[in-house]
Amino acid sequence: MPLLLIITLILVHPHISAAAGLCHPDDRAALTAFKNSFTNPNPFPTCDPVFDCCDWYGVECNETTSRVIGLDIAPYETLTGSIPSSLANLTHLQNLRLHKIPNLVGQIPPALTKIPKLRFLAISWTNISGPVPHFLAQIKNLAYLDLSFNRLSGTIPPSLPTLPFLFALDLSRNQLTGPIPETFGHFQKTAGFPAIDLSHNKLSGPLPSSLSNVLFSSVDVSRNNLSGDASVFFGKDKAASSIDISRNGFEFDLSKVSFMESLDVLDISHNKIYGAIPKQITEAVFLQFLNVSYNRLCGEIPTGWKLRYRSEPWENSSFVHNRCLCGIPLNPCK
């Protein structure tokens, strides 16, 4: 690089030193190896030696230690290759996000287990394949795991809920098969109120009854081939704000279900749910979206809703295609 350009860059960015930067040499070497692992001739133009590596594309450094704590590569449609094991050399990394990289292929590397401080891991909207690795449960500080919109297959590792701080798990929009593990009813108490999204997969089998043990903050298991009793997600003592169990084969008596006040989204459509809609549902004052259509429900639709944030009445589409539901907004009961 011409000397005049180097001097100009230093004048424009006074925190940059051409001789020595703030970035730790080990982190610079790891990021350089990460960059060079891809087939593109120059995937990250800002990753130039004249810049301190804390100023490289997608890189976040700790302001005190100058160690790399975050790497966010998104979106990057031209990036081609697989996830390199050299990421393990970023030993202080806490947040890793690889998002909307359609030419990112291969499997999730075991080297990620060598990043002890990793808390946030998102590898989404890529073409990575293979299984959801069991070894992810070895990353003990992991609190947020998003592997959505990929080509992952196989079963869900039963070890994931053993992670002591895992409060958000998104495995949606993959090709996962098999049942939801029984261990998903045993999330660690240190995880608080976990949120799970397993939607748009090929999961099958009955739900484990152990799920009733967990105070989920959000549940989405829609668009699978699951069966059995999904009432395990409900209860006045539960904390979920959103429950979507639609487009499965669930079969249970809705009239025996109680609803949490915190609920704002409820979609149980396209199942085999029977019974009546409990009057107690009107106490879900935060409810804004409701869909119970395409089931086997009967009886009168409750009235006297106490909705705080929805002023318009429910539409027909929320209740249609049931066995014998009646009342507003459907036809009057006879």
UniProtKB/TrEMBL annotation:
Signal peptide positions (record): 1-19
Keywords: Leucine-rich repeat, Membrane, Repeat, Signal
DNA repair among keywords: no
Domain Leucine-rich repeat-containing N-terminal plant-type: 24-62
Cellular component per GO, a single term: membrane
Pfam families documented for this protein: LRR_1, LRRNT_2
Database matches in SUPFAM superfamilies: L domain-like
Alphabetical list of InterPro entries matching this protein: Leu-rich_rpt, LRR_dom_sf, LRR_N_plant-typ, PGIP
Record Gene3D superfamilies: Ribonuclease Inhibitor
Intracellular or extracellular location(s): Cell envelope; Membrane
Recorded family membership: Belongs to the polygalacturonase-inhibiting protein family.
Protein name per its UniProtKB record: Polygalacturonase inhibitor 1-like
